[in-house]
Amino acid sequence: MVGTGTDAASARVAEAGARPSRRRLLWPVGVWLLTRLVLVSAALRLGPFASKDGPDVSVSKVYRGWYDVLSSGSFPHDDVSWQYPPGAALPILAPRLVPFLDYSHAFIVLCAVCDAAVLAALVYAARYSDGRRSVAGVWMWVVGLPLLSTVPWSRFDVMVTAVAVGALLAAGSRRVWADRVFGVLVGIGAVVKVWPVLLLVGTARGRRTRLSWVAAVLSAVLVTVVFLLAMPGALSFLTYQGDRGIEVESLGALPFHLARHFGWSGHWAPHDGSMEFIGPYVRVVARVSAALTVVAFGWLLLWRVRSRAGRTEAWVLPDAALTAVLLFVVTSRVISPQYMVWLVGLAAVCLLHRATTQRPVAWLVLGACVLTTAVFPYLFRDLLGGSVPAALLLAARDLMLLGAAVLSAVRLWRGTVSPRRTVSGP
C-alpha cells in the first residue's frame, strides 16, 4: 500500500512537471494583450489608425451588404460572391448581438472575442488538461495571427477557427461527452465554411468514430434544414462553386504570373468575388487542381486505412487535421489570406502536444504568414500589375505552403503508419 501511494504521488509530480507553469503562461498572455491592443485598434480604425475610409471593405461593404439581405429573410442568392454554406449566415448576422455598435465595429469586436476565446482555451488546455502539454501551442496562436496584419479581425474565419479549435480540444478530453461535443462542433463548423469536416479524418476507429461522425452529420443536417425552412436560397452557393476559376494568389496561378511576361493572352479580372485569371489554359489548370484535390482525399483515405489501429494517442487527431487542411489548401483554386488563420489555429492545437509530428510544419506556416502579408495587402496592387518581385514573393509563399503540406503528410505517415524503430539491448 505504501508503494502504491508513493507511485501515485510520483506520477502526480511528474504530470505536474510536464505542464507549463503559470508564470510561463503569463508571457504569451502579455504578448497577446499588446499585439491585440495594436492590431484590433488598427482594424477598428481607432486612435492613431483612424481613417476616413473606415474598417476593411470586406466588413463595411461586403459583409454589411450580405447582412442587409439576410436580415430581410433571404440568402443573397443573386450575388455570385456568396459562395458559403447556409451556416455562414450565423457570423454575418452575429453583430446583432452588439446593438450598441455599428455593424463594422461590432463584427471586429466579435472576432476579437473569438480570438480571446481561443487563447483562453489553449491556455487552459496547456495548464490543466491531462498528459504532457506544451506552451508552444499558445505561442503559435499569439504570434501567428499578428503576422497576418489586421486580416484575422476583418474576416469571419477566426470565428470558424475558434469552433474548430474548440472541437479538437473537446476531443482531447477523457470525459464521456467528448466525442459527441467534438462531432457537434465539427458539424456546425462545416455548415459555416466546409473545411472543419476534415477534422473527422483522424478520429480513432470504432466507437469514437461512430459517435463523433454521427453527431457531426446530425448537427450539420439540423442546421441546414433549419435554414432551408426559414430562408430561401440556402443552397445557392452550390451553383456558383462550379464557376470558380484560378484565383491570383493560388498555387495554380503561378504559371500564369510567369506566362503573362511571355505573351500569354489572358488577364486577371474580378470574378465571383475574387481576382481570378481568365484566358487560355485557365480551365485546364482548374481541372488539374480539382483532380489533385481528389488525389489528396484518396491519400487521406489510404492513411486512415493503413495507420495503426486505434490511434488513441491524443496528438494524432490534430496532426491529421492539419495535414488534411494543408493538402486541401494547396490543391484549392483559391488561397485567400484568411485561409492562414485556419492553419495557425490547427497548428496551435498540434503544438500543445509534445509528441506532435508537426513542429517543423508549424514553422513553415509561420513563414507563410509573413509572406502572405507581404503580398496582401502591401504588394497586392503590384502583383496585379505584373510586378516580378511581388510574384516571386507569392511564389515563395505558395511553394512554402506546398512544402508544408508534403512535409506534414510525410511526418504524419511516418508517425502513425511506418513501424517505429526500437533499439535492442545488449
Low-confidence stretches: 1-17, 421-426
Indicate the radius of gyration in whole angstroms: 22 Å
> Total strand count, please?
3
Approximate helicity band: 55-70%
**Bulk shape:** globular
- Average pLDDT for all residues: 90
Q: SSE order, as H and E?
A: HHHHHHHHHHEHEEHHHHHH
- Distance from N terminus to C terminus (CA atoms, Å) equals 35 Å
Number of helices: 17
Overall tally of structural domains: 1
The major β-sheet equals:
3 strands, antiparallel
Keywords: Cell membrane, Membrane, Transferase, Transmembrane, Transmembrane helix
Protein name: Glycosyltransferase 87 family protein
Main location: membrane
Membrane topology: Multi-pass membrane protein
Structure at a glance:
This protein has 426 residues and is mainly α. The protein is built from 17 helices and 3 strands.
Q: Can you walk through the features of this model?
A:
The chain has 426 residues and is an all-alpha fold. The chain has one domain (21-237, 244-416). It is 63% helix and 3% strand. The protein has 17 helices and three strands. The protein has helices spanning 2-17, 22-44, 57-71, 89-93, 103-128, 136-144, 157-171, 178-193, 207-230, 237-241, 254-259, 282-306, 316-330, 339-351, 359-378, 380-384, 388-416, and strands at residues 246-247, 267-271, 274-278. The protein has a three-stranded antiparallel beta sheet. Strand 2 and strand 3 form a beta hairpin. It starts with a helix and ends in a 10-residue tail after the last helix. The model is unreliable at 1-17 and 421-426 (pLDDT under 50).
